Amino acid sequence: MRHGFEDEYNSEAYLSLLDQVFYMYYTEKRHEARDEDFESLQPNAIDWRMKDRLKTVSAALVICLNIGTDPPDIIKPDPCCKLECWVDISAQPSAKALENVGKNLQQQYETLSFRTRYKQYLDPHYETTRKFCTSLRRSAKEERILFHYNGHGVPKPTLSGEIWVFNQTFTQYIPVPLHELHAWLGCPTIYVWECNNAGNVLRNLERIVERDRTIQDMQAVKTQVASDCIQLAACSEGQLLPMNPRLPCDIFTSCLTTPIDIAVRFYLGQNTNQTHYLTESTVSIPGRLQERRTPLGELNWIFTAITDTIAWNNLPRSLFKRLFRQDLMVAALFRNFLLSQRLLRFYGCKPVSSPLLPELYHSSLWDSWDLALENCLCQLSDILVGSDTEGSMRSFRHSTFFADQLTAFEIYLDRASIAKEPPTELPIVLQVLLSQVHRLRALVLLSKFLDLGPWAVNLALEIGIFPYVLKLLQSAAPELRPVLVYIWARLLAVDGSCQADLLKDNGFAYFFQIFSSGCALPPSNIGFDYKAMCAFILTSFCRDFKPAQTACLNIGLLESAQIQITGADNPLLRQWACLAIAELCRGYTKAVLHASRIGLLTDLCTLIGDPVPEVRAAAVYTLASILGSREKAINFIPLEEFIVSTTISQSLLDGSILVRRELLMFVSKLSETYRDKLEAILLASILYGDGKTAQRPLNTLLACVVTSAHSLVWSALLVLCADPYPAIASASQLILAKFLSCTLNQWVISGIAALLRKRSLRTVLPGRRPLSSGNMVPYPRQLREFPWLYKYRWNMASPRKPIRNVEYYEHRLGQSTDSPGENKSPRSNFLEWCMRYFQEPQMRPPEADEPGSIEYNNRLWKRTRNERIILQTQPQKERGAKGSWDALQSQVVNRALVSSLLFHQFENHLIAVGIDNSVSVWDHKRSLLLNRFYADSSPSARVTGIKFMNEDDTALLAVATLDGVVRIYKNYESAVRIRLIAAWQAGEALPTHAASDNFVCEWLQGCGTMLTAGDFRTIKIWQAPREVCISEIPVRSPSSVTSITAEQVAGNVFVAGFGDGSLRVYDRRTANRDGMLSVWRNHKSPILSINMQRGGDRELVSASKDGEVKLWDIRYSQPCYGFKPGDKLAAVSIHEHAPLLSTSAGNGEFSVWDISNVDSLERVRQGKRCKTVSSPLAMNITALCFHPHRMILAVGSVAEANLSVFECDHWSK
């Protein structure tokens, strides 16, 4: 093996390197983002807040029993039910019984809503009913009223729905028409009909409400919504209430107000064998409803969770929000209404409601309720019969319902499908947050659910999670901090409307304390940088919210963020610390001045050189926000000049599209601020830029009004107009066009246009040399109306159309309807794009790393295929020098003459570059054209290099053009899916030699670096993860680089060939000025190709245009051996792994040479000529390329079928 690589390649370090994960480049989120992703980035947040939240402030409890007198239309059996509100009305005097019934009913309702004002109306007469109904509406105003009607002592409602009350002497039943009752009570109202034939009342009242709604719609009256009328009826039309003596007479009311008591009685009645030791009269579950650790409180808690979950999983979201989240009283009644559906159906009754609810008694969660109830009742016998009641209570075993439901929720999360099906346990998780026992586990599971994406966050907000997590910010428990930070980051990433809520109780201070503290958080199941999340939360808090900006400035957010951007190791934290500063200072002059005083602006400038592109872009975004937020009266020009010069000089030629996009926003903001200064620069360029006038008047004129910062902004805007990334270039051109339109319009009005008529409109940018007319190309279409810009970039000049005079622009501007005030700067969406990080799953591995996923399986298949190809081609390499190379595999017609070729290592892709700068992608086995595209529409942008990246996986195609630009394409083989993911100025912006026509590159996959060189003084080393030039090694040659190659493993040593025939070896591990190790001057003509094999013996082969071919070892100053296959060479290619070399003099023949038979390094012997093959049409050959593994050679020629693929016949002798 050449160059002494044996020891290095056989070392343990190198072998372990081969076993490591294969790194891919240009696959980050910033490369996956499309241009349209920056236009609409906000997720579809739902309207989860209850804007029309209501309260049931008043309640009328109307009880018409007339105890002792049965209604005439009801025949009661004997025995019959006797309990009304759990009061035995037959065991007490009538008046006392009626009073106790009313008292109990009010107490039962108070367990649902204690703040509601209740008023009992016992056996009322008509006039009393009218008065108290109208009085309730006056006192309630626009809030909700509860009207509970118990009609067990009056006849059934009439067919028209009239209910009955009494006259003053209790000698007659007086009907109350529903339309009058509805007029008295108005809306919003909730009616509870506890009477026979209650469904008839509900149906008739619905008709009245619908009629009123229609009248309001016709009159277009904007009053309280007439349809906000809710009804609960004990039975359907024509049905009678059950009169079972074991049941209360008002069983429907019992279900609505005392669900636990009636559920226990129902369970005991249905399961007499299992609970024979308990009777309905002896059951009294100890505890209080509000205390969840007592048996009664735990049952009530479980019942609430189950009924809430049943409704959530079966009702439309809008109906659920209205009935279960708008009003506490309504929510409690409808939860208990679900129980009435289950119980009353056993007794032939069907409770109904308006709005109509489906029958939900069949839900499987009712089985969980029965289990919880049985667990409680089984232990209740020990408590009731035991002598030590308090001791028995302490030994009470709590239900495992919530723990089991959390386990089910955890199983759902482990198997969460892509279908985005909502989990059935989500409302139960919400209830678990009320328990300190399960709270931490519930929060962790909730954070995992929110991690699924914005749809999960919307579901959690819709179910009502926000008040709970807001309340938890007042908790001092340290174990809750990590998970609360994660949950809040997810919430704010989807819905940023929570700023006022965080400010109200100083909830933002919870996150500021974590962000600014130096201590680490307690360990958590979520292993993320919580400080970065806190920075994001504070950023969202300050965004376009002046009270939040003031609060964060007073609490010291700028000082804390300054510490993070200078000392944080995590790039995500540095990024969001910058963005927090940006949102705090945006439009807030006081914060800008404070940032300037503490030296924060200087620290931000240092971040422009950060190794992470997102951090660099965040720094530019922040500086743009700060400079764009200052008032014109504020003067800190020296610092501003430093910021402008640092930002533009370091970011203008940044390799990251993301950074240059933000630089454009930075320049756009400053172009508005410096408008008058830029107009002066433009005017001076037109007046003195024709080359006939000395430069001194120009400098004198500009020095009076502008500074270097103004000139830099103008220069940067012009350079960005020709950015290699189309979206940046078009946006820059639009900004410039608006500026020029406004400026020209002002000049025409002020009479400056008369001066312009005397001057040529063709000017140059100060400090740049104009190009010769032979090197001019059309300028982008958007700027053709402004011809003096044609020379502002080194590779662009006058258009194909003749230059128009000033009158033409006066005429066009006279027709313009745009005013200067309408020319607003474009808005950056960088913050919204960064927020997507917290909208995407972070707890799960990427799909490509998830076993079983499509992408994972595809990658695994590719890896297996690649290994198989390598193993299959190993024997071919030994026989490649013995076979015949005249077997034609395929032959196609490329649209243009081929100038260079490139095989993919594992796919059947052959890239052919035409002399018209087209890039064609062929399937060489099927002779099929897959795609053809142009890297640049400019004729001067000749394609000078093509390289594959990430070949072991999904390959990318890097295309280098003569103007020094490198473009990287994804899905290059598809005309539909091809996409430009990276483009940057990899070479010098301005050539140093007049005869410049070289720009070459070399990609090193092993270390993720790209070498670029050409007709400029340095070799640039670009690092793909950073997307910056990390080193510039002087070439130390007056000639231009024509070819470059490098050792592929470590990438430290590389060799460049020059136009003067010299070869130079460089080592990037040394200091830049000492990077050149040696010079070889054995060639006498320009180097055509220099190439070091990836495998095999790592042969280093150079070829010059005069036909000389030499093999080198970098340890020696002389070639190992050499030969001359002809008087000249037009094309040459070396096999990456086999000792084969192909050459052609361009005369229609190519030769394949065996370069392996060398006895020793000291003995130089000519390589053996294996075979000379004539092309079919004996036309000139323009390109040669070996397949990296297979014995295949592609040949491009000047022929009708100008692209041929030959393969070696291994059985030829």
From TrEMBL:
GO terms for cellular component: cytoplasm; TORC1 complex. One of its GO terms (molecular function) is protein-macromolecule adaptor activity. GO terms for biological process: cellular response to amino acid stimulus; cellular response to starvation; positive regulation of cell growth; regulation of autophagy; TOR signaling. Transmembrane segments: none annotated. WD repeats lie at residues 1080-1115. Keywords: Repeat, WD repeat. SUPFAM superfamilies: ARM repeat (SSF48371), WD40 repeat-like (SSF50978). This is WD40 repeat-like protein. The lineage of its organism: Eukaryota, Fungi, Dikarya, Ascomycota, Pezizomycotina.
